[in-house]
Design goal:
alpha/beta, Rossmann fold, Dihydrodipicolinate Reductase, domain 2, 2 domains, seven-stranded mixed sheet, 23% strand, binds NADP nicotinamide-adenine-dinucleotide phosphate
């Protein structure tokens, strides 16, 4: 079925927005961002599995009621998909056909050449007249948001990055697992993993996504490489990632060693980061204050700092970003805002 033409922007009536996966970690954050922006509750359609139908989710001072996602996608102006890749593949085309601008948080369409992969601060123009847009992987969004101002000013030839990823990146069940395991271990009981292959309390382990036996890269690392090349339109970009889970509830931290194409000073980098959209510079050597996941939690900007120069073109940085906000829901809402 051909997609309906997008409705012209109504200056008075806010868009009718469907949130698919509204009960999950990303979906709840999308609702919270919409509520913060004053989006009225009666312009929200909260969708999840049939298990959650009828559940009331807090929304500003009120609540929204969850309906079951069915094959008959409701008419709406925009749909934020915050569910699995399978659900996106099954329902996003129907949502577009029903007239919605669709932004998908899953990996379903990220490498589809017909679907733009967008971080608004970097490549908003890639959207053109698309009605289905893919949100990049959370680690990719956080890394590129912080490094894009350096790329624009000095060029980026190579990145070596190690991630320290929060458990909520694996959804709400993973949050419950870290909380339960932490209590168990403190009470002298064993940690019993179920969402993750390893205990997550008091532990650090290689990212749980499937590992390619030929390259040794896990899925998260492969996504960071492929998606960064696509967003920056730089197929030759050298990106060497090591993705790791840490016992943090929320917000991903990254330690990046960046090789620039042109020489710069630490102050040049500070100036570029301080002026960049979506980035907050936190580089306080005097007080040893640098980006942390707790500092990034709940905030919009990606924090960048701990800038150190190892040669005229080699710098290391510490980056932290709330992966449920800029790494997922906020990026999706920003895309929606550009188009509705
Ligand atoms: N967590 C992150 O930091 C993050 C960051 C970037 C991208 N993502 C991506 O965002 C998506 C959501 O992740 P999440 O962490 O929010 O997962 P989650 O907490 O596990 O939530 C999953 C959501 O999907 C819904 N769902 C499951 N089966 C469904 C069905 N048959 N029909 C309709 N809805 C269904 C769930 O509804 P019920 O409650 O009814 O089961 C829930 O609302 C994933 O594709 C993930 O890869 C996540």
């Amino acid at each position: 079925m051909p997609a309906k033409a997008p409705a012209p922007k109504d200056p008075v009536r806010p868009p009718l927005v469907a949130v698919v996966g509204a009960t999950g970690a990303v979906g709840r954050e999308a609702l919270s961002i919409l509520a913060e922006r004053g989006h009225p509750a009666d312009r929200i359609i909260a969708l999840a599995s049939a298990r959650s139908a009828g559940e009331r989710l807090p929304y500003a001072d009120a609540a929204v009621t969850v309906a079951a996602l069915t094959d008959d996608f409701p008419a709406c102006d925009a749909a934020l998909f915050c569910a699995t890749a399978d659900i996106a593949r099954a329902h996003a085309p129907g949502a577009v056909a029903a007239g919605a601008l669709v932004v998908d948080n899953s990996s379903a369409f990220r490498m589809d050449p017909a679907v733009p992969l967008v971080v608004p601060e970097i490549n908003a123009s890639a959207i053109a007249d698309a009605r289905l847009i893919a949100n990049p992987n959370c680690s990719t969004i956080i890394l590129l948001t912080a490094l894009n101002p350096l790329r624009e000013r000095f060029g980026v030839a190579r990145i070596v990055v190690s991630t320290y990823q929060a458990v909520s990146g694996a959804g709400l069940e993973a949050v419950a697992e870290l909380q339960a395991q932490t209590r168990a271990v403190l009470d002298g009981r064993p940690a019993e993993p179920s969402v993750f292959p390893e205990p997550c309390a008091f532990n650090v382990f290689s990212h749980e996504s499937p590992l390619d036996p030929a390259t040794g890269l896990n899925g998260e690392e492969s996504k960071m490489i492929a998606e960064s090349r696509r967003i920056w339109n730089d197929p030759g970009l050298i990106l060497i990632p090591t993705c790791v889970r840490v016992p943090v509830l929320r917000a991903h931290t990254q330690s990046a060693l960046v090789t620039l194409e042109n020489p710069a000073t630490e102050d040049d980098l500070r100036a570029a980061l301080a002026a960049a959209p979506g980035v907050a510079l936190l580089d306080d050597r005097a007080h040893n204050r640098f980006p942390t996941p707790l500092g990034a939690t709940g905030g919009d900007p990606v924090l960048a700092g701990r800038i150190r120069r190892f040669s005229p073109t080699e710098f290391s940085l510490l980056i932290a970003g709330d992966q449920l906000r800029k790494g997922a829901a906020l990026n999706a809402v920003q895309i929606m805002d550009l188009l509705t």
